[in-house]
Design the sequence.
């Protein structure tokens, strides 16, 4: 047998179909609208900050003629009565163990 190289010819090309309407539309990358949304958010944030700072600076009084005076008023009519000594003392066998127990109630409790 002769070993000759066999030349393969590519199959004939199919005729191109006319483009459909969907193919004619320019397709944007999938992350395009994400980038547009982020840019819009950044621009909105900067504009909001600029407007807010402008409003505060315009409406803020430049002159402060008023002197700050601290006027405190008593809100309670009576102060709490506090004594550091015990007010009430009771001695008894409360837990029935045969030993005397002491209960102390201090002032304010």
Sequence:
């Amino acid at each position: 047998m002769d070993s000759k190289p066999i030349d393969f010819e590519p199959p004939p090309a199919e005729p191109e179909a006319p483009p459909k309407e969907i193919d004619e539309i320019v397709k944007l990358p999938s992350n395009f609208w994400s980038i547009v949304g982020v840019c819009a958010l950044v621009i909105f944030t900067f504009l909001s900050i600029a407007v807010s700072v402008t409003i505060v600076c315009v409406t803020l009084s430049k002159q402060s003629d008023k002197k700050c005076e601290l006027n405190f008023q008593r809100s309670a009519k009576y102060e709490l009565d506090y004594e550091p000594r015990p007010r009430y003392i009771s001695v008894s066998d409360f837990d029935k163990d045969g030993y005397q127990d002491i209960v102390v109630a201090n002032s304010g409790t």
Q: What stands out?
A: Helices lie at 21-24, 32-59. The first strand starts at residue 86 and ends at 92. The beta strands are 86-92, 101-106. The mean pLDDT is 77.
